[in-house]
Structures are given as structure tokens and as C-alpha cells.
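Researcher: Going back to the complex we discussed earlier. I've cleaned up the inputs and rechecked each line, so this should be the final set. Can you rerun the prediction on the complete assembly and write out the structure?
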Amino acid sequence: MTPARRARLAWLHRWAGLVTGWAAFAIFFTGTLALFDTELTRWMQPETALIPQDSQLTSYAMDRAQQILLENDHAGAPPSFLLLPEPRDPTLRVLHYDGHSFVGPTLDPQTGQTIPVRQTEGGNFFFHFHYTLRIPSPWGERLVACIAFAFAAIVFSGVLLHLKRLMPDYFTLRLKASMARSLLDIHVLTGSTMLPFHIMITWTGLILTAENALPVIQLDQPSLAQADIAPQGTPHWAPQASLNLMLQQTRTRLGIAPSYVLFDDGKTTLSAIRQNSLNSNDLSATFDSQSGEFLSKTKDASQIEDAFYILNGLHLARSMGPLLRWLWFGGGLASTIMVGSGLIYYTARQKKQPAYTFHLAQRLNIALIGGLVTACLSIFVFNRLIPAFWAARSTLEVTGFFGIWAVCLLLAMTLPVNRSWRIIAGTTGMLGLAIPAIDGCTAPLAAWGTPLHLSVNSLCALTGLTAIGSLRILSGQARHD
Amino acid sequence: MTDTVLCLTEATIFASCLIWACSLTFVRNKFGLQATPTTKKQIIVLRLLALVVFGRAVKISLANSAIPDIAICIMLLSINSIIIALLLCFIEKKRS
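Model: Rerun complete. Updated structure for the full complex:
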């Protein structure tokens, strides 16, 4: 590669990275959290901890769910759908989309009794943020699609820039060197070791977002959310025929237990997620809602369709087992660190940057990297501190998240850089370490020792300790300066 | 994938990463290994061995569904590389 071409690639990598980097950081960070969206929802609804992990769905609970569906239908409510118990969430949920999130009663899958869970967006908040940045539709999706396109270019230019040193520098990490050198090593190490993951997640993300970026492309199969929103005016969507019988027939015909049930256009569709297959093409059986007569089941997909569904499945991680999900979490974390270290590296090389760009980038780094982590931890704290019976608590949690983030932005823009970083990192540390304590005080006794609460609390505490550790690095650097 | 197969796959991939690390100049320098006329041949042999060991790991992991198992192997390779880079980071260079 000629020096001129290399300089042009470096320019593209630096500026495309800087312009889209902050949004990419938020997308990667929330996407990594969204891998465990169901688990986070359960953590944010500790009342569900009383339901055993291996609860079996009884016919009594299914009848109760059908009764609620019929009541909603007669009251003129928009169509609901059912989430059946599965290992990730053993409760039975009757949900509908209220324009912002999925809401509705949560039932005990054995007794059919309503569990008085607190209203929260839960892990769905991170999932929604990941692909919309909470910007109204369709602009949020389009912006994320544009960032995905830019990120593909950044990855490509980064690989070309580093190709020559990829083999010799593969395990190079010098944490004891200067800050700029350490950051570059972290950036290159997380970039090169996780390269297959970066390419896969960007490519599959591009396929998923292409529909939004290029509205000409339309897929005919509606998603879960679309299927729920579309038939607003459809009269009597709730099934009259027994859901229990449909459930039994579906188990026999598909060979696996269904995971969710949709009601649309006089039909009831029971779908099963193919666990640990990475294929997002769920197996479905459709019945007539009035008579309960079996109508059809999913046809075998062609090889091209299967390839498309596998690419979707690789990104959405819906049908993954726990091991692959944790590995994906590690990959997502590495991507987040790669973007974050790249952004901070830009400001660490301060002498090479113009003063105004440097100061703005430094402050935006604090507000958008540190601020986002603080805001994400604060949503867990708000979840526990806002009284469970408050009707608008779900909105309050989200308002609290953006409020904390806005305060971080204000601090970063007004205070000296070191001081604002100290305050934000200190707050992140305190929040991270406080979450396990608050959870211990507010969650039911049954939830304390569960793997779910132990993992979420440990990760929050670890984040807090990392933030406090970053304060020590900052102090050391200040002494060095 | 059963726990035994997973442990075996992880151990094999870790070994593969270690063997590859041994072929890198900066790692050899850390352990005070001097360059000799046979160094180039050693490097080629080590890298081929690392690839064979990784291939063996993929073969061990393949049980019933190929795509998830290959995805697990690739992700384990990436994560083990980061772990080894962290371990190597704390090894001081030997003064010759």
C-alpha cells in the first residue's frame, strides 16, 4: 500500500470513527446488554423470582390466559399475544403493545394466578435503544442503519491499515506503557482478536437494518411487534376455540413446545423457537381461531431463505443456548471496548489534534461513554427505588435514565475535564456497588441466591469497581503529568 | 455440547493459542530466546502445529449442529487470544 493511500485510509478510519463512534458505542453497549433482555426484565421484576425455573404450563393457567384475552377483546383492546413459559422466563405473559412498550399481566404458569409484577420496560428498553437510539420511528432505525454502514467502512479501513502487522502484533498488549500506547494496543487487540465477531455482527446488522435504510426493500413476513400493531381495527381477534387443544396439537405436530402465540385475522399461530440452532425461522402451526381447526404449519425454507434466517439468528441471538449467549456477550463487550478505546485514543494523542476538536472530543467522550454507563446503572437503581405500585413508574425509569445522562453531559461541558470525569466515574462506582445492596434490601428472599440475581449484581459491582479503578489511573496520570 | 466436550475444546483451543504465541518474535524475545538459523523453520512448524491443534478442537466440538459449534470455537479462539495477551502483558522481558 502506498503511503498516500495509507494516509487516506487513516483519515477515513479516524474521522468516520469519530463522527459515528459515540453512537456506535451506545449501540454496541446496549446491544450487549440486550443479549440478556429477558433475564434483565426478570431481574427488574423480582416478584417473578417466586416462580420455579422449571415450571410447567398447566391447562388451568392456559384457560385463565384465554379468559383474559377474551375480556380484552370484548373491551375493545388491541390484539394481545402470549409468551409461554420457557427456561429463560418461566412465567406466562399476556402482552400487547401500548405504543411504547409491551405491557400486560404476568401469570403463574401452574396456578394461572396473576403475579403482581412492577411495570417496567425491563431489558426491552436496551433492545429498543440498540436499534432506534430512542429516536422516533423510522428516523431512529434509519440513523442506526447509516451508522451500521459507516461502521462497516470503519472495520474495513481498520483491517487494511493493520493488515501488515496483524500476525506479528496479534498478542501485543502493553498496559504498562504510556496511555496512548496502551489504548492503541487495547483497540487493536480487541479489534483483531474479535475480527470474525465484528465482521459477522456488522454484516448481519446491515442485513437487518437494510429494510429501514432502503425502504424499497420490504419483507413480507411481519415481525412480532408488527404483527401486534397492524390489525388495530380487527374485530374479535381473541380465539373462541380451546387454546389448550391447539397447544397439544402443536406439540404433536412440531415435536417441540411452542414459545409464543399470535392472534391475527381470525387465525391463531403457535410458534416454537428452535433452541440452539441460530436459525430465526421459528416453527409455527396455524389454527382457525373460531373452530380450532388446524390450518397449516411452517413450510421448509429454501437454502437461500435458511441462510437469511441464520444471518438474522446470528445477530438477534434469540435461539442461542446460554454458552453461546455468554460468548456473544464477551464479543459485544470487546466491540464496545474497541470503540471506546478508539475514541479515547483520539484524545490521548492530543498534540496531533486541533485544539477545538480535541476539547470537544474529550468532553463528549466523558459525557457519552462515561455518562451512558452511569445512566444504564441508574435505570437499575430507579427500578428498585420507585415504588412498585406507581402507575407511571415505567416512564419514570426511562425519564430517570435520560435525566442522569443529560446531567452527565452538562457536567462534562461545564466542569474541567478531570473533575467531571472524577464525578462521573465516582458516581458510576457508587451506583455499581450500591445495586447489589439495594437488590438485597428490596428483592424477595427467594430471589437472593438465584443465578440470575447473582450474575446481574456481580456484573454491576464489577462495573463499579472498574469505574473506581479508572479513577486511580487518572490520579496516577495526573501525578505523572 | 456436553460439559466434558466443552472443557476439552477450550483446553485444545487454549493450547493452540499458546503454540501460536510461541511463534511470535516479541513473545520469544520476552523469554530471551535468541534468533538462530533455524528460527524461521521453527516458526513455520509452530504455526502449522497451532492450526492442526485448532482443527482438532473444531473436530472435538462438532456434535450434532455444526453452525453453533463452529461459532463457539471461533468465539473461544478470540476470547482465549485476549486472555493470553493479558497473561503475556504481565510477563517482564528477560534481559539478555
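Model: Worth noting: The radius of gyration of chain B is 15 Å.
Researcher: Good, that matches what I expected from the previous run.
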